[in-house]
Specification:
The complex is a heterodimer of chains A (171) and B (102). Helices cover 78% and strands 0% of the residues of chain A. With 171 residues, chain A is an all-alpha fold. Chain B has 3 helices and no strands. Classes of the chains: A mainly alpha (171), B mainly alpha (102).
Amino acid sequence: MILEYILFAILGLVAVVTSVAMITRPSPVMSAIFLVLNFFALAGLYLLLNAQFIAVVQVIVYAGAIMVLFLFVLMLLNTDSEHAILKEKRKLKFIGIFIAVLVFIQIGYIVFYSAPSDSVTKEIAESINAGKIETIGTELYTTYVLPFLASGFLLLGATIGAIVLAMKKFE
Amino acid sequence: MNTIPMEYYLLISAFMFSVGVTGVLIRRNAIVVFMCIELMLNSANLALVTFSSFLGDPAGQVFVFFVMTVAAAEAAVGLAIIIAIFRNKLTVNIDEINIFKW
């Protein structure tokens, strides 16, 4: 009980701090590293929510595959660091931050105003059952079999598209 | 059920989403902007998993699985587009990629 709160506090803090650090670091490589840390913190939060399968997939697919792709592209392009994130075009960027704060206030207001906790089930067994790979696999291959097949075609199309776009033209 | 209230998870998700919005609006490096979009997708995933877990319904987690598939496809195609832009203009600074601006 108390351990759950401690774990939630640590993981939530790591998620919040790394996300802020990610957009304030001038070097894109540091941003990528902080994003990986953020993904690990999120995987921990998924475990606290009894979603084991999603936590594992988060680490393998996001932290493992997608971020390695990002780091490879960063290495290929060798881009400069942005040392003056808030120095140039100050006015436009402060408007940007203001818009983001408005978005946060809006979502926070909805979360507290609609009081979602009032309508949830109180059975922990159902929550654990929902996160099992068996349950998710059964749902995926019965109710959601057509979207599942469509996502296979989507990945095939994305692979072909990426190869065509990134291919060097030989003359 | 979980002892931690649902609102805390949703607030972390909301905060990460707004940080992603800030990053998209203030950063000028196209790859970092792209990473901020991934951050926003992840915050939406956290909200989906929270609702799924608190309602005891696996549908939310199936949706997270699909979001991850789409994110992987999007990352592959998007990074290929960034490489193609870099090959043509030798920069990924989005202030200098302005042919559609008038």
